[in-house]
Structure formats: C-alpha cells, structure tokens
C-alpha cells in the first residue's frame, strides 16, 4: 500500500487522496492515464510516457495542470516519498468536477493523481513456461471512433475482452479490429516470429503505440533481426513459430497457445527469450 499519493499539487495521505463523485473521470471515463515502471530507482522511459500523456490529453482537449518538467519532479517526489526503487507508477489526469452532463467545459480544473506502488507481476512460471491466450470476440474499438493511441480512462472495450479471457481460464485475450486483423491484447502489444522475421501490427490496426513495443523493436533491430509492421491475420497467429506480448506490466512474455493451437514446440521461443533478456538488461541500465 502506498504511503503517500500525489494529488493535484502536493503529496497527501492515502485517506485524503479522494476525488468528487461529480468528477467526469468517474462519470464518463473522461481522462487519460499512464502506467510506468521504475527499475533500480530509475523511471523507465519517462519522457516517452509523458509525451504520450500530453498527446492523449491534447487529443481530448484536456489541460494538464503542470508542464512536463514539473510533472517529472512530481513523479520523482512521489517515488521518493514511497521509497520505491522497483515498482510501478500510475499517472491519472481526470477532467475534474463538473455537472451531470457530458459537457466537459463545465469542469473548471483537471485533477492530477500519481500513485507509486510495488508491481503485481504475473507468476514467474508464466514467463518461464509461457502464457495461453484466446481470441476475443469483442472487436477492438474502431480507430476512427476512438483512436487507440489515446490512453484514456475508458477501457471498457478492453475489459470486455479481458472478461472473455478470464472466463476461458486464461489471462489475456487477443483483440481484432473491425476488418478482422490483429489489433493488440487487452493491455499489451502483439508480436509474432516466422522464419526468423518479427511481425507486429501497425498502430493503424488499432493498437496503442506502446513504449515497450518501441523499445523491443529497437532492441530486435540492434540484434540484426528484421522487424516488419504489417496487418496480421488470426491464421498467422495460429501458424507462427513464436508469439510474444510486450507491455509495461508484462514486459516481454512468450505466448505458447492461442485458441487451443500450440505455438512452435509449446515453449517460449529463442527470439522471445533473447528479447526478454535484452529488455531486462536495457531496463536495468546494463546496456545502451
Ligand atoms: N495496449 C494497451 C491497450 C495498453 O493499455 C499497451 C498496449 C502496452 O503499452 P506500454 O506503453 O505499456 O508498453 C498497454 C499498456 C495493467 C497495465 O495494469 C496495462 C498497461 C500499462 C500498465 C499497466 O494491466 N497497458
């Protein structure tokens, strides 16, 4: 449990970290957020996360109460106050208190919440032996309806797919877009390997522009592995050699089964394991 929470302009006790029932973040999911890792006391890719946060806010005409330099300072103060060296930061910006109506402009001031805590990991054996997933029947939001690049507080689309996963006894679901192409998992980006080449859906397929995704693409290319961004079909997931997901929570995790089809030899593949190792080294500052 966190001992101090950043609320608006200062650190407060968790009991005082409360927002109004009239906050449009609660009433309408009107707001944006980021989930960020801390490794060895260093905030992982903070600049990239803040850029995405400010862009998400700009896209929904939400003003964040401080600039990126002040927000960086607030994040660091929150980590220090909670004694976090390896953990997780949740940054939330809500539209703020308004009236019972959709209109956002009656909300006079956005709220800023920063929570720094330990991270809940998947069980270690899932990283070693790989994870099973299913294909969700819930279609990913149409990118022209709600651009998936906006990391908004409205995650119902993903939650519906997550329910399908949990109902099937697995932890993650793969979501497809309105055209049937792979978009992403409920909180992770999708990668496959076929004949030594890595494939991942383009952001335009309806994926969040994941920070982990970008880092992993870069690490793979530095290993001399070709990475291709193109639309992927469900069939290609079924017959690939390797399959893995990337995300702040999951980092790099091998998928060994989708819809009852075993991937490769049923264990996380060599490229997956290599990239997981490289990601760890990079995250812990052991490799440029
Ligand atoms: N797609 C979606 C829909 C996400 O929400 C990712 C991809 C991966 O992006 P990053 O930038 O993290 O590599 C996300 C991120 C959680 C949790 O508690 C989920 C995310 C981030 C942090 C925590 O499940 N999703």
Verbal overview:
The protein is of the alpha+beta class and 288 residues long. It folds into 2 domains: 5-117, Aminotransferase class 4, branched-chain amino acid transferase, N-terminal domain (D-amino Acid Aminotransferase, Chain A, domain 1); 124-283, Alpha-Beta Barrel (D-amino Acid Aminotransferase, Chain A, domain 2), CATH 3.20.10. It has helices at 24-28, 46-59, 68-81, 124-129, 156-167, 211-222, 234-238, 270-283; strands spanning 5-7, 10-12, 31-39, 42-43, 87-94, 111-117, 131-135, 172-176, 182-185, 189-194, 197-200, 227-229, 242-247, 251-258, 261-262. The longest helix is centred in the first third of the chain and has 14 residues, at 46-59. The radius of gyration is 19 Å and the shape is globular. It starts with a strand and ends in a 5-residue tail after the last helix.
Which of globular, elongated, flat, extended, rod-shaped describes the shape? globular
- Helical stretch count? 8
- Whole-number total of structural domains: 2
Tell me the CATH superfamily of the largest domain: D-amino Acid Aminotransferase, subunit A, domain 2
- Can you tell me the CATH class of the largest domain? Alpha Beta
CATH topology of the largest domain: D-amino Acid Aminotransferase, Chain A, domain 2
Task: Indicate the low-confidence ranges by residue numbers.
Answer: none
Number of strands: 15
First and last CA, distance? 33 Å
Bound molecule kinds, no repeats: 3-[O-phosphonopyridoxyl]--amino-benzoic acid
Strand content: 25-35%
Give me the secondary-structure category: alpha+beta
Overall average pLDDT: 96
State the share of residues found in helices, binned by percent. 25-40%
**Mind telling me the C-alpha Rg?**
19 Å
How would you sum up the major sheet?
Answer: 9 strands, mixed
- The secondary-structure element order is EEHEEHHEEHEHEEEEHEHEEEH
Please tell me the CATH architecture of the largest domain by its name.
Alpha-Beta Barrel
């Amino acid at each position: 449990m966190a001992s101090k929470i950043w609320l608006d302009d200062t650190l407060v006790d968790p009991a005082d970290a409360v927002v109004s029932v009239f906050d449009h973040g609660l009433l309408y999911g009107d707001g944006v957020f980021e989930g960020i890792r801390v490794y060895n006391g260093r905030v992982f890719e903070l600049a990239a996360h803040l850029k995405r946060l400010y862009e998400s806010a700009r896209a929904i005409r939400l003003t964040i109460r401080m600039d990126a330099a002040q927000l960086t300072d607030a994040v660091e103060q929150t980590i220090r106050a909670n004694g976090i060296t390896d953990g997780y930061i949740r940054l939330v910006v809500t539209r703020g208190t308004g009236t019972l109506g959709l209109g956002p402009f009656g909300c006079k001031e956005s709220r800023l919440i920063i929570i720094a805590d330990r991270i809940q990991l998947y069980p270690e054996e899932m990283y070693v032996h790989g994870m099973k997933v299913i294909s969700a029947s819930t279609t990913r939001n149409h990118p022209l309806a709600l651009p998936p690049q906006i990391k908004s507080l409205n995650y119902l689309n993903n939650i519906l797919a997550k329910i399908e996963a949990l109902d099937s006894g697995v932890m993650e679901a793969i979501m497809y877009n309105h055209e049937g192409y792979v978009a992403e998992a409920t909180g992770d980006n999708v990668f496959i390997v076929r004949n030594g080449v890595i494939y991942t859906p383009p952001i335009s397929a309806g994926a969040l522009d994941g920070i982990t995704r970008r880092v992993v693409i870069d690490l793979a290319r530095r290993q001399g592995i070709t990475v291709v961004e193109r639309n992927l079909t469900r069939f290609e997931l079924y017959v690939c050699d390797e399959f893995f997901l990337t995300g702040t929570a999951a980092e790099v995790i091998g998928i060994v089964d989708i819809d009852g089809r075993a991937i490769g030899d049923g264990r996380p593949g060599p490229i997956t394991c290599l990239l997981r190792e490289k990601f760890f080294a990079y995250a812990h500052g052991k490799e440029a």
